[in-house]
Design brief:
With 112 residues, the protein is mainly alpha-helical. The chain is 61% helix and 5% strand. It has five helices and two strands; from the N terminus they run E-E-H-H-H-H-H. A two-stranded antiparallel sheet has the order 1-2. A hairpin with a 3-residue loop joins strand 1 and strand 2. Helix 2 crosses helix 3 and helix 3 runs antiparallel to helix 5. The longest helix is centred in the C-terminal third of the chain and has 22 residues. It is elongated, with a radius of gyration of 22 Å. The protein starts with a strand and ends with a helix.
């Protein structure tokens, strides 16, 4: 059996230990050549957790629209109490404004 959690899992039968090892090695190299899938939820959680202490990464606005919408939702959920009280941290307010503006820009560009 060859397993890499959240990436691939493959199992099978072999006649002996050497055949099993050979099959596992072949499966391993076939799957290693496959890119590791993204864990979008964790990436968004990390961005939200760091928003008050670290600027967003440079690549953020090159992400797809679905990623940006999920990030906006996560930020609103995390800072909901402060937003309701009118005490949204400036960095969060600016990021939400910029993310919304980017999504609007994409919608307008697509409509043209």
């Amino acid at each position: 059996m060859v397993a890499w959690p959240k990436w691939f899992e493959q199992n099978g039968q072999a006649a002996d230990k050497q055949a099993a090892a050979d099959a596992a090695t072949e499966a391993w190299w076939a799957h290693v050549a496959t890119p590791i899938p993204r864990d979008v939820e964790t990436e968004i959680d990390v961005l939200v957790a760091r928003v008050l202490v670290a600027p967003p990464p440079n690549y953020l606005f090159s992400e797809d629209s679905e990623f940006l919408r999920k990030l906006i939702s996560a930020l609103r959920l995390q800072f909901e109490a402060q937003m309701r009280a009118g005490e949204t941290p400036k960095v969060v307010e600016d990021l939400l404004t910029n993310l919304s503006a980017e999504l609007y820009r994409r919608r307008v560009a697509r409509a043209l």
